[in-house]
Write a structure and sequence with these properties.
Helices cover 34% and strands 19% of the residues. The protein contains 13 helices and 15 strands. Strand 12 and strand 13 form a beta hairpin. Helix 3 runs parallel beside helix 5 and helix 6 runs antiparallel to helix 7. The longest helix has 29 residues. The radius of gyration is 25 Å and the shape is globular.
C-alpha cells in the first residue's frame, strides 16, 4: 500500500510538471498572438418575437473576450446591411493572423440545410424568402476559412424555434467547416434552445462565460464543462453541441500553476487518498478502465455520448462510449461464438438446463465483475453505427445475451470506458 501511494505521488508530481511544461510552451508560441472577435446580439425584432436575454448575452461576451485580450467588434440589434458590413470588417482583421472568434445571439433559421442569422428589421412572410433577407452563415464561415489563420471559433446561441411552424420545430443545421475551426451550438443540430427563464443571461451563454473566466482550461474543456452544466440544469432538455477540426490547444485565460494546483507537499497524501477513493467505481479489464457500476438511467444515444464525455470518474475526463466489440468482450464468450441470432438461440436453448440449475434461477451473460449494480433488462449503447445508417447504432444486451440495432432516439443504458 505504501509503495502504491509513493507511485501515485510521483505520478501526480509528473502530471503537474507536464501541465506546467505544456502551458509554458503554449505561452511561448502563442502568448502574443493576435485575437479578434465579432459579437452580434439581436433582440428587438420588428417582425419576429423579441428575445429576452440576447443583448445581455452579447454584451457580456463582448466584455469577457475584451478582458481576455481579444480585439472585439460589437454590433447590437443589427439590420442586414450592418451585419454584412461588420462581417467584412471582421474578415479584414482576421487576415492579419491569429485567432478568430464569432459569436451570435438572436433568431436563427435553417432552410434547405443552410443556416441564416435574422436581422432585427427582417420582414419574412414566407420561408422561401429567408435567404434574401438574412445573413447567410456560409458567408461568415467562408470569410473565416479564407483567413487561413490557425484557429477560428464560431459560437451560435441562435437555435430558437422556427416561426414558420415547420415539422421538427426549428433549430440549426450542422456546419461543414475546414481545418482549424471549432463550432459550438447552444443545443444539438435541429433542436431548439431556451432563451432563458430568469436572470440576465441565457442558460448556454451564462455557463460559457463562467468557463471562459476559469484559468487554464483548454478550448475543449471550456465547452465540455458548458455542455454538462447546461444539460443537467435544463433537466436534460438542452444539449450543447460542438464540432472541431482543431489541431493543438487554445486557452482563453492562462495563468501560472499556483500552490493550489500543485496540491502542496503537506496535502499530497490527502489528494492521493481522494484519487484512490474515486477509483473505486472503476473495473480494469484487458488494459482498459470500465465504469462499474454503470449508469442506472436510460438515455437516447446522443445523450449517452454526452454522458460519457462529461464523466469524471476517477479524476479522468476522457471517458467515451464503447464500440460494439468492446461491449461484446464483456459478455459470455461462448455466447458470441455465433454470428447470427439463430445460432445464438440454439445455444441458448441447449443450455436451458444449466440456466435452471443456477442457484439464483438466472443465467448471467456478463462477466461476474459487473453483476452488482447491473440494471435489470439491460441493453447498452455502443458507438458503432448500424450498417452505414446514421440514425441507428448497435446495442449489446447482458440480460438475455446478444446484440441488436436501435434507433438513436430510443433509450438504453450506458456503460462508459476509457483507454485504447
Amino acid at each position: 500500500m505504501k509503495s502504491t501511494k509513493i507511485l501515485l505521488i510521483l505520478l501526480l508530481l509528473t502530471l503537474f510538471a507536464q501541465a506546467g511544461n505544456e502551458r509554458s510552451i503554449y505561452r511561448k508560441e502563442h502568448g502574443k498572438e493576435k485575437k479578434v472577435a465579432l459579437v452580434i446580439g439581436n433582440k428587438n425584432y420588428t417582425h419576429f418575437n423579441r428575445l429576452k436575454n440576447t443583448l445581455h448575452d452579447a454584451e457580456d461576451m463582448r466584455d469577457i473576450l475584451s478582458a481576455e485580450g481579444f480585439d472585439v467588434l460589437y454590433l447590437p440589434d443589427g439590420d442586414l446591411k450592418q451585419m454584412e458590413k461588420i462581417v467584412r470588417k471582421f474578415s479584414y482583421k482576421l487576415k492579419q493572423g491569429g485567432v478568430g472568434f464569432f459569436y451570435y445571439s438572436g433568431h436563427g433559421l435553417e432552410v434547405d440545410g443552410q443556416n441564416y442569422l435574422i436581422p432585427v428589421d427582417a420582414d419574412i412572410p414566407e420561408e422561401n424568402e429567408v435567404k434574401y433577407q438574412s445573413l447567410a452563415m456560409n458567408m461568415v464561415v467562408d470569410k473565416m476559412r479564407e483567413s487561413r489563420n490557425r484557429l477560428n471559433i464560431i459560437v451560435l446561441d441562435a437555435c430558437r424555434s422556427n416561426p414558420f411552424g415547420r415539422d421538427g420545430g426549428g433549430g440549426l443545421a450542422q456546419i461543414n467547416h475546414a481545418k482549424g475551426m471549432y463550432i459550438a451550438f447552444a443545443t444539438a443540430p435541429n433542436e431548439v434552445a431556451s432563451d432563458g427563464v430568469s436572470g440576465r443571461n441565457g442558460l448556454f451563454t451564462r455557463y460559457l462565460i463562467t468557463n471562459i473566466k476559469t484559468p487554464n482550461l483548454t478550448l475543449n474543456q471550456v465547452f465540455k464543462r458548458t455542455r454538462a452544466s447546461v444539460y443537467w440544469e435544463s433537466g436534460e432538455k438542452q444539449l450543447p453541441w460542438t464540432s472541431s477540426s482543431v489541431i493543438g490547444d487554445f486557452y482563453f485565460r492562462l495563468e501560472p500553476l499556483s500552490g493550489s494546483d500543485m496540491a502542496g507537499a503537506s496535502d499530497i497524501q490527502t489528494h492521493t487518498a481522494d484519487v484512490e477513493k474515486k477509483r473505486k467505481g472503476i473495473t480494469r479489464i484487458d488494459g482498459k478502465m470500465w465504469q462499474n457500476p454503470p449508469s442506472q438511467k436510460r438515455f437516447t444515444w446522443d445523450k449517452a455520448v454526452a454522458y460519457c464525455e462529461e464523466l469524471t470518474l476517477g479524476g479522468y475526463d476522457d471517458w467515451r462510449l464503447p464500440d460494439r466489440d468492446e461491449l461484446r468482450g464483456l459478455g459470455n464468450r461462448e455466447l458470441y461464438r455465433y454470428k447470427s441470432y439463430d445460432g445464438w438461440e440454439k445455444w441458448f436453448e441447449s443450455h436451458k438446463g444449466e440456466r435452471l440449475k443456477n442457484a439464483k434461477g438466472d443465467f448471467h451473460f456478463i462477466r461476474r465483475e459487473f453483476l452488482e449494480g447491473m440494471p435489470t433488462l439491460s441493453w447498452f449503447w455502443s458507438s458503432s453505427i448500424y450498417k452505414n445508417d446514421s440514425s441507428r447504432t448497435w446495442g449489446v444486451g447482458f440480460s438475455f445475451g446478444g446484440d441488436y440495432w436501435y434507433n438513436k432516439t430510443d433509450e438504453s443504458c450506458v456503460l462508459c470506458v476509457r483507454g485504447q
